[in-house]
Amino acid sequence: MAFCSNCGASVPDGAGFCVECGAPMARDAVPSSARQVSHHAPSTGYTPPAQEAYHSEAPRDVLGVGAYVGFFLLMMVPLVGLIFAIVWACGARNPNLKNLSRAYLILTLISIVLSICLFVALSALFSQLTSVSGLSVLSCLMQP
Ligand SMILES: [Zn+2]
Question: Distance from the CA of 25 to the center of ligand 1, in angstroms?
């Protein structure tokens, strides 16, 4: 059992970061109070809170590979996936999940707009082709 040089909490051996404050742990951390004091003394007044917050927040917010796979599998379900994406985009606690859902919704919107454009273009082309072929059929019938 090692002790954090920043806050003094007990940390499991081999842990890279303190479980209490998120401060990086020395590889050869030993539970010696002298070492703790010598580490603490020079850093008084210089404890970057932003870095500590980053270290303690980051591991909980990261989505694993399984979460991404599960998300995209869920999005394959036609209506349920869309509902989940909207719900998560509005109020997911995990910022990564929120951003992922928003990105998915934007992509879905783009693909819907593109498919509508494609449909309009194809139907216009199709009607043009049928009118041309109809004319050619009519001209063939007119000629004896
Ligand atoms: Zn600590």
Answer: 8
